[in-house]
């Protein structure tokens, strides 16, 4: 007995809601009663990825061209149906499109279809409006139609490798619904454009910016973004070297829960508070980080530093994080960090290459500093990894560390010690040196 | 009402085949339909639910009690729903979705609809027809025309004999 076709349209619409766009549309083939139900479901969810690129590049290009055109026609036709159907209402619209797979396609790539789609959706979509458009061309080759920044219902916007110039934002309106903005490898004409975008998106909670080309400073402050919770900023080290400048990120914000920074300098505003910050991950930050000592991090659970030259220097970095759960450090030097916490159980992961003679560290001071660091983290469960550096085949292994240290009999307990050394002949004596500063429960080679 | 006096209030629900069920008001008002009746003061005696049979209502009440005993933890609620629906056959699911629709219980409605959708996922047209007993009333020409219209949706779908 055909029970499913007897279900009321409201229920069928709900069932179709949970299918992909293709699957929902395909139900029209089942039987006549199913013919048009799919185009009354409350969500439109389109996604396009180019076919896999094989050896025959020309074939891929031709195939992508046809498929993309089919996809665009299908979206066109669906939107027309919704527009013409009085009882259909799209609460949600999602479009995720990868335009191409290669930069070498000689055809001009355009997203002009958005100029047609966005205006017809603006009055139709009542809840979620997600747009994600990715190109593989060199950044800046693809122009963004101004209609995008004029799309008031936008909730989520992700753009990759587009050009953002004055023309692209000439029709910008306050995007009060925009909660998540992701911009990757965007070529931007000047810093004022980014500022203008930010000042028009007051509700942003998640801001992701990666490899933003030619942008020099990013400013994030309470004045514009009242609800900002998560920021991810990272820049390509290669591009950074080409441009010979580090982006500077200014943060004046108290509602933040997550900060992820990669390869940029940061500057926390005066009086910045981190009441809600749970996760702080800094990578490749060159600017001094000593001022972190002056803040309180009452909610911080996760703290990570990776290759941050800003931690070099003799002063101890003091982190006030009563609720820390996890601390991680990796870098080519040994920092002086102390974490004040009331946390009963927390972990520290320290990952350092053993590079005698590097960074003006003689082998002895390497172990002395490491001992000090382990002592300051001794309340946590410590996981220590010493890595082989390919550049040094002659390990200088100091004779007796204990004489050089405080000489006390207290050893820091290390849960797990991993030694990644390819030159097996040095391992026994190196292990001895590590054993003279700590007591590992497990040793992994 | 319970909220005012502090003592738990019990409601009596009556199915369309005249079975009576007692349920805590706090659990029953997961149904917006029942909540509205309670708020309008019609909950004094027996609440008749004309569109739900006893077997389905018993199941819905099990769900109401189970889910309302879980504190505000969306993950735990989800795993309760998954477990609750895991052994239900399609006929039962169809009864439940109708009841959830009538009782205006969005969380149950969503969970059952998603479960039914899951059955249809990644299946060929022919498979879905057979599974649900849907009679194909298209002529071959009509069917070909509809398929042509939705050609892009058939990319990468495994075909079978009567797809």
UniProtKB/TrEMBL annotation, chain A:
Entry-linked Gene3D superfamilies: Ribonuclease Inhibitor
Signal peptide span: none
Pfam families xrefs: F-box (PF00646), LRR_At5g56370 (PF24758)
Every F-box domain range: 1-37
Chain segments annotated as transmembrane: none
Superkingdom of origin: Eukaryota
CDD domains: F-box_AtFBL13-like (cd22160)
UniProt xrefs under PANTHER family: F-BOX PROTEIN-LIKE (PTHR31639), OS02G0160200 PROTEIN (PTHR31639:SF42)
Protein name (Swiss-Prot/TrEMBL): F-box domain-containing protein
Species assigned in the record: Erythranthe guttata
From TrEMBL, chain B:
UniProt domain SKP1 component dimerisation: residue ranges: 108-152
SKP1 component POZ domain location: 11-65
MF terms (GO), sorted A to Z: cullin family protein binding
Pathway, per record: Protein modification; protein ubiquitination
Keyword Translocase included in the entry's annotation: no
UniProt key word RNA-binding: no
Pfam families membership: Skp1, Skp1_POZ
Functional note: Involved in ubiquitination and subsequent proteasomal degradation of target proteins. Together with CUL1, RBX1 and a F-box protein, it forms a SCF E3 ubiquitin ligase complex. The functional specificity of this complex depends on the type of F-box protein. In the SCF complex, it serves as an adapter that links the F-box protein to CUL1.
Protein name, per record: SKP1-like protein
Species assigned in the record: Erythranthe guttata
């Amino acid at each position: 007995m055909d029970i499913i076709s007897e279900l009321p349209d409201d229920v069928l619409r709900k069932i179709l809601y949970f299918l992909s766009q293709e699957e929902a549309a395909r139900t029209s083939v089942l039987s006549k009663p199913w013919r048009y139900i799919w185009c009354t479901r409350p969500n439109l969810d389109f996604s396009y990825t180019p076919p896999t690129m094989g050896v025959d590049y020309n074939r891929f290009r031709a195939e992508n061209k046809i498929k993309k055109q089919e996809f665009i026609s299908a979206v066109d036709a669906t939107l027309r149906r919704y527009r013409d159907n009085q009882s259909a209402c799209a609460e949600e619209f999602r479009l995720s499109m990868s335009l191409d797979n290669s930069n070498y396609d000689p055809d001009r790539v355009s997203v002009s279809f958005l100029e047609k789609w966005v205006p017809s959706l603006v009055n139709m979509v009542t809840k979620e409006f997600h747009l994600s458009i990715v190109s593989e061309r060199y950044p800046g080759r693809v122009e963004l139609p101004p209609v995008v920044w004029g799309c008031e219902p936008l909730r989520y916007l992700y753009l990759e490798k587009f050009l953002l110039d004055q023309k692209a934002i000439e029709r910008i309106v306050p995007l009060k619904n925009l909660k998540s903005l992701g911009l990757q490898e965007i070529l931007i004409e000047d810093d004022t454009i980014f500022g203008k975008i930010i000042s028009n998106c007051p509700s942003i909670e998640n801001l992701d910016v990666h490899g933003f080309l030619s942008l020099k400073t990013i400013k994030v402050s309470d004045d514009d973004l009242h609800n900002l919770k998560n920021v991810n900023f990272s820049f390509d080290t290669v591009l950074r070297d080409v441009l010979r400048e580090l982006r500077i990120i200014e943060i004046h914000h108290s509602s933040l829960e997550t900060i992820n920074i990669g390869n940029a300098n940061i500057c926390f505003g005066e009086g910045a508070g981190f009441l809600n910050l749970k996760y702080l991950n800094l990578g490749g930050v060159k600017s001094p980080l000593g001022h972190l000592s002056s803040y309180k991090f009452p909610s911080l659970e996760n703290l990570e530093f990776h290759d941050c030259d800003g931690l070099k220097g003799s002063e101890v970095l003091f982190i006030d994080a009563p609720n820390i759960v996890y601390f991680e450090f990796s870098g080519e030097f040994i920092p002086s960090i102390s974490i004040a916490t009331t946390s009963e159980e927390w972990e520290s992961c320290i990952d350092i290459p053993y590079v005698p003679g590097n960074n003006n560290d003689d082998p002895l001071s390497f172990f002395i500093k490491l001992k000090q660091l382990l002592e300051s983290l001794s309340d946590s469960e410590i996981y220590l990894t010493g890595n082989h550096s390919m550049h040094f085949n002659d390990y200088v292994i100091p004779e007796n560390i204990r004489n050089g240290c405080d000489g006390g009999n207290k050893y820091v307990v290390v849960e797990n010690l991993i030694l990644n050394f390819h030159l097996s002949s040095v391992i026994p004596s190196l292990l001895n040196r590590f054993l003279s500063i700590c007591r590992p429960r497990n040793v992994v080679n | 009402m319970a909220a005012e006096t502090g003592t738990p209030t019990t409601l009596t629900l009556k199915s369309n085949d005249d079975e009576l069920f007692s349920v805590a008001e706090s659990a029953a008002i997961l149904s917006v339909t029942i909540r509205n009746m309670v708020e309008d003061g019609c909950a004094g005696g027996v609440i008749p639910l004309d569109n739900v049979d006893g077997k389905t209502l018993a199941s819905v009440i099990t769900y109401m009690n189970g889910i309302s005993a879980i504190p505000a933890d969306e993950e735990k609620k989800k795993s309760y729903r998954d477990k609750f629906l895991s052994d239900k056959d399609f006929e039962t699911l169809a009864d439940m979705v109708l009841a959830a629709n009538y009782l205006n219980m969005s969380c149950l409605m969503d969970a059952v609809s998603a479960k039914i959708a899951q059955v249809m996922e990644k299946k060929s047209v022919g498979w879905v027809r057979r599974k649900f007993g849907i009679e194909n009333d298209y002529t071959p020409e009509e069917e070909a025309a509809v398929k042509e219209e939705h050609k892009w949706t058939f990319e990468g779908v495994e075909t079978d004999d009567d797809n």
